[in-house]
From TrEMBL, chains A, B, C:
GO terms for cellular component: endoplasmic reticulum; plasma membrane. SUPFAM superfamilies: Family A G protein-coupled receptor-like. It comes from Dacryopinax primogenitus (strain DJM 731). Belongs to the archaeal/bacterial/fungal opsin family. Keywords: Membrane, Stress response, Transmembrane, Transmembrane helix. InterPro entries: Arc/bac/fun_rhodopsins, Yro2-like_7TM. The keyword Ligase does not apply. It is a multi-pass membrane protein. It is found in: Membrane. Its main location: membrane. CDD domains: 7tm_YRO2_fungal-like. The chain crosses the membrane at residues 25-46, 53-72, 107-125, 132-152, 158-177, 198-215, 227-246. This is Heat shock protein 30.
Length: 287, 287, 287
């Protein structure tokens, strides 16, 4: 009666679902997210208060992913959906019209945090708020479409898959095109950091549709395998990528992104109108 | 086995629901939304980059409505709810305690895009962000209330109808009162465009409660009729209205709305600190 | 057949749920929220248009809470969830594996309005938008976690309880630490108002986990008792606290919070370019 009892206490209600191995892995991933979250909070407080802005978004994202992984490790947050495909290359052990667990908790976490990744990256680009918001929005559309597609039992699920991939393409194109130009408006070093990181981000994001096609869409890999595939992607994206991104920007003053605290603005703004009348009459008086 | 098989593959689970005619019409409407979306994207890229801001919100709205119409055309996204009314003037063919399909996919699309219409219109008015956000919020409250009212089976649904109409009235009053004044602060021509378009918007918005009362609320018209009624309203609002609005503003510089890209700001801001030191040493030269 | 028939028309589907007394109390609370909402709207229009900003957020919050209380008074918006605990100190009248009504309508109202309370309070502090958004976000995380915990039947619900309390602690610490400092940047009187009100807010917020533990979590008090406990807290927080907060700031010019309407900005900005030519003719004086 010791060890991980999540699968016993909250039994799965789908025929194709995780077993204790999958739950063990998810507890490990949950611990990683939780520790990264606490580490990011500690790191934030070690920095000067004016430089903390870039740490806030990763903290939010890691907190939400921690809750999502806690839910999945506890074998909560899935719903049984009849799988579309059966046969030699698919999960057949459960009989023909079998249900597969669709982990909507995972999608809720993504819908809330994926746009935050885009926001974090675009903090370093001089784009207008409307463009930033629209890019975040299409990231939301992408993962909502993945969720709806996963919940649909018939072949129409691939229609949502197409919407999701098209939205992802829109996000990546915006980041690598106008986003990169806007990062170059700040400085050349920021542009090179931006380009390097967005390339990694784009590569990782395009692995998600592949995982989806093998797991929720095509019913090819087991639920435990799905947990490993998505879990490794999430750890690479939310922990390695975000820590690396913040680390590479550790020496960059966030004021160049327009994030100076309001107190700084008050100090720098006041001299400007004061200087204008003070300087303007100077030559005339001398003349 | 050819033609539109959506109703066969995803059979409706309510007794009063759409048949293939309704699904055909929804596929046509989906195609219209999709083409308008692509057309708006193409139009955006044909314009100067500084003028693209007004195109972003219509693109988001049309993308979401495309996904919603795809769902409804595929006969997905409805849930059976026992209708309140039966009898001579209502849908009687299904027997007395019959269920009617409530298309929640439609409401999800509205909840996400209706506030964007308000946002697009208020881009042209010099209102504070708090006022813009509150107007968008009441638009959300209106359509969430319509959704909850549609899902309630008892006569209490009309309580939510009252909340929804009251919220719509708040939105319209805000647009036509403070909104119109704020548009006048920008220029007289913007105010006349604003007044003309908001009048059309208000007229179309007030047809939605009528459609709701006949379809989801009163169970008077068929599900196919409901699809036509709502669909025509959506096409008028999301395609005709938005295209017309953006077209009327094609000659207006968006910088007058405060949307100048950050590059312009950087150019105009830099000379100010640069001028200060350049002028300061002037006395020295004189000395 | 007169009087409050909500419990008859919309019968509860859980074994432990409210009866007519609870519904009566909720109608009274609904009336209080509705009247406070209308009173706040009336108060807003009695003030100068530049001072209305602080009234907008309370109006939104009170409108949403009115709809939520209407739902609960009509005995709608609950779902039956098997309670975790039974026995001497818990609700036993319904037999052993009994279901308790979880009022998700209440949580939807909180998720939408609790961050608005934080926003209203932080209007008076000179914090960066990123910090304000992150504080609001953790308030959302707190009440979403309470909701998920209430919907989970097994002992894992207390995991979500821990997440919720940790998020609440983050919000309170941020308000009383950086928030109080940021309020002090505006003026000393604003800081003292901020400190006084945030202390009240923190005290009330920490009563919510206690109520949750007794009602949704521990199944100790009846559903009617739950309605009274939460209802009194909501009335204190959304009506007494918000009215008091706005009242204490009635004499403070909102322009010092950065909320001057754009018209004022235009008026105050124009003199600056106007001053330049005003100084230019200075040579005339010299001449």
């Amino acid at each position: 009666m010791s060890g991980n009892q999540a699968v016993d206490i909250n039994p799965p209600n789908a025929q194709i679902s995780i077993n204790t191995n999958g739950s063990d892995w998810m507890w490990a991933a949950f611990a990683l997210f939780m520790l990264s979250d606490l580490g990011m909070i500690a790191w934030m407080y070690m920095r000067h208060s004016a430089q903390r802005v870039l740490h806030v978004v990763p903290i939010i994202a890691l907190s939400i992913m921690s809750v999502a992984y806690f839910s999945m490790a506890a074998d909560l947050g899935s719903t049984p959906i009849v799988a579309e495909f059966y046969g030699n290359h698919h999960q057949v052990y459960a009989g023909d019209p079998a249900t597969r667990a669709i982990w909507y908790a995972r999608y809720i976490g993504w819908v809330l945090t994926m746009p935050l990744l885009v926001l974090e990256v675009l903090f370093t680009a001089a784009m207008s708020p409307t463009e930033v918001a629209s890019t975040m929005f299409f990231q939301v559309v992408a993962f909502v479409s993945f969720l709806v597609g996963a919940l649909v039992t018939s072949t129409y699920k691939w229609g949502y898959f197409v919407f999701a991939v098209a939205s992802l393409v829109y996000v990546i194109v915006t980041l690598l095109g106008p986003g990169r130009n806007a990062a170059g408006l700040i400085s050349d070093s920021v542009r090179s950091i931006f380009t390097r990181n967005v390339s990694v981000l784009a590569f990782l994001l395009f692995l998600y549709p592949i995982a989806w096609g093998l797991a929720d869409g095509g019913n090819v890999i087991t639920s435990d395998g799905e947990m490993v595939f998505y879990g490794v992607l999430d750890i690479l994206l939310y922990i390695c990528f975000l820590y690396g991104f913040v680390y590479q920007l550790r020496a960059t003053d966030v004021c160049c992104f327009g994030f100076g605290p309001k107190t700084h603005k008050l100090i720098t703004e006041k001299p400007v109108p004061a200087a204008a009348p003070a300087v303007a009459p100077a030559p005339e008086q001398i003349v």
